[in-house]
Each structure stands twice: as structure tokens, then as C-alpha cells.
């Protein structure tokens, strides 16, 4: 999707509320052979140990979404079913202590790295408001290079809507990128069903889908995502984030003031 580069300033109306935190132990192990270094194996084990500590506080929620991706829009088209499974852990690690790493022989040709640690787990304050929600639909689930994306949003209550694009293949600070509101489409207070681009913004711009450059020549399909954030007050968001930064920013907002909806879509490379 074409990115829109701009700076927008909003007023923050929700008073800041601290993130609740508590220490939990997490552990994990990873087998490795000659094809993997000890450093790589221990790195994988540590990431899993951190995740296991998170789950003890927040739990894990799994949702799935089916994307039927066709090579052409015709009766002769070949289609594949692509299932996207979301794993959501609503928390962040604010600190690590008592980290212990042990490497030992597991059996012939394989060793094992075990990581045990304690993590300071932060979670958002409050409880979700079940009456504050939205229905989100995309105009397509699979796009060709050059197609336009339209997002339909039906809020259960009036809300301020911010739309982000998540690009899993991106590195660094541009994994999560704000695409609405933008300089062409600034009014993000939705009181009823609306679209992005809005009727006003559609006169000035399109959200064009593009197959990402730099992919392997053999790769014909890539997944991208939009994340729609609804808030009860107008919140200041940056233009772009790393994924972990974005999750941390959302955790700063009390859960009764926010609703997040994710939708995946596929981009099919032009022949």
C-alpha cells in the first residue's frame, strides 16, 4: 500500500493511568544441532521464556480468519485457502531479573539450551467495555498490485477511529504505519457506519495496494494487515512504530476506553 508521510497533532483528553505490573517466572528450552549456533538456540529459548511469563498474567487469545486467494478473477482461476491465526497476548515486559541460562548435552549430535527468568509484566488498567465495539469489513480479502483498499467501519458507539497498516516483513520503526487520519482525510470521529477513505477524503486520494519490492522472485503472495483502533477520546498516535512499541502504546490506554480490531488481507503478485 502506498504510504502517506505527514505529521498530525491531536490533544490528549484521557488522563494517563499507570500500567499494572507484577513479576512472573518463565522458562523454555531449545534443542539445537550443528546447523544452529548456541547463541541462536538460547535466543529462541529466551523469547519463548518471556512469552510464557506473559501468558501467566494475561493469558493467550487465539482467533482465525480464512482468506480465499485466487490467481485470477475468472471461472478458471486457481484458488488457495490461506488461514491467518492471531495470537494475542495483552501485556508487555517492562524488566527482566534472575536470568539463568544452561546449556547441556541432550543426546547424540544435539544439545539443549534452557533459559529461566523472571519478567516484570505490565498490563493495561481497567476492564474492556463490551458495549464499545465495531464491525470492520474490507472490500476484498485478496488484492492484486494496484487495487484500492476500502475499509467499512460500523461503530456500536461514537468513537475516534485510527487505522494502522502492519507490515510483518518490515524491519525497524516502520512495521506499523498510520494511514488514517491523514492530511487528505482528517475527520476521524465516527458516529455511524463510515468508510476509510471517507466520502470527503475519497475525492483526494486512494489507498493503493502494492506488492512489496525486494521479495524473492518466487514469492507470489504476501500477507499484510490493518489494525483499527477505536477510542472514546481523541488520542495522539505517532506516524509509525515498531510492533512492540505499538503494543506498548496501546497498553497505556485503559481498556474501557479502547477497542482494537485486526483484519488480514493478501496481495497477489502480478504475473
Model description:
This protein is 11% helix and 44% strand. The strands form four sheets. Strands 7, 9, 10, 11, 13, 14 and 15 form a seven-stranded mixed beta sheet that branches. A three-stranded antiparallel beta sheet has the order 1-5-4. A three-stranded antiparallel beta sheet has the order 6-8-12, with no helix packed on it. The chain has 271 residues and is mostly beta strands. It has two domains: 162 residues, Immunoglobulin-like (Sandwich); 84 residues, no CATH class. The chain has two helices and 15 strands. A hairpin with a 2-residue loop joins β4 and β5.
Characteristics:
mainly beta; Immunoglobulin-like; 7-stranded mixed sheet; 3-stranded antiparallel sheet; 11% helix
Short description:
By secondary structure, this protein is mainly β. It is built from two helices and 15 strands.
- The backbone outline, from C-alpha atoms, is flat
| SS class | mainly beta
Unreliably modeled segments? 2-18, 73-77
Q: What is the count of DSSP helices, taking H or I runs of 4+ residues? A: 2
Multimer state: single chain
The CATH architecture of the largest domain would be Sandwich
Q: At the first level of CATH, what is the class of the largest domain?
A: Mainly Beta
Radius of gyration (CA) equals: 21 Å
What's the structural domain tally? 2
Order of helices and strands: EHEEEEEEEEEEEEEHE
Topology, number of strands:
15
Q: What's the rounded overall pLDDT mean? A: 82
Strand content: 35-45%
CATH topology of the largest domain: Immunoglobulin-like
Amino acid at each position: 500500500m502506498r504510504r502517506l508521510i505527514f505529521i498530525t497533532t491531536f490533544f490528549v483528553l484521557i488522563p494517563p493511568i499507570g500500567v499494572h505490573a507484577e513479576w512472573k517466572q518463565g522458562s523454555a528450552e531449545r534443542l539445537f544441532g550443528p546447523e544452529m549456533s548456541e547463541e541462536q538456540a538460547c535466543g529462541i529459548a529466551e523469547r519463548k521464556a518471556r512469552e510464557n511469563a506473559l501468558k501467566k498474567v494475561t493469558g493467550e487469545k487465539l482467533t482465525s480468519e480464512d482468506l480465499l486467494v485466487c490467481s485470477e478473477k475468472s471461472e478458471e482461476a486457481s484458488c488457495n485457502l490461506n488461514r491467518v491465526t492471531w495470537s494475542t497476548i495483552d501485556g508487555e515486559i517492562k524488566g527482566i531479573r534472575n536470568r539463568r541460562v544452561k546449556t547441556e548435552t541432550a543426546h547424540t549430535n544435539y544439545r539443549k539450551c534452557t533459559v529461566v527468568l523472571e519478567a516484570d509484566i505490565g498490563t493495561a488498567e481497567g476492564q474492556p467495555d463490551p458495549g464499545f465495539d465495531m464491525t470492520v469489513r474490507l472490500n476484498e480479502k485478496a488484492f492484486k498490485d494496484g487495487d484500492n483498499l476500502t475499509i467499512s467501519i460500523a461503530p456500536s458507539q461514537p468513537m475516534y477511529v485510527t487505522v494502522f497498516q502492519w507490515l510483518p516483513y518490515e524491519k525497524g520503526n516502520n512495521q506499523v504505519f498510520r494511514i488514517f487520519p491523514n492530511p487528505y482525510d482528517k475527520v476521524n470521529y465516527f458516529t455511524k457506519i463510515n468508510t476509510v477513505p471517507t466520502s470527503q477524503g475519497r475525492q483526494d486520494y486512494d489507498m493503493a495496494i502494492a506488492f512489496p519490492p525486494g521479495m524473492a522472485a518466487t514469492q507470489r503472495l504476501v500477507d499484510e494487515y490493518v489494525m483499527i483502533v477505536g477510542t472514546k477520546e481523541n488520542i495522539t498516535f505517532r506516524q509509525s512504530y515498531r510492533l512492540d512499541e505499538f503494543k506498548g502504546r496501546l497498553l497505556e490506554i485503559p481498556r474501557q476506553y479502547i477497542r482494537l480490531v485486526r483484519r488480514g488481507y493478501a496481495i497477489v503478485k502480478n504475473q
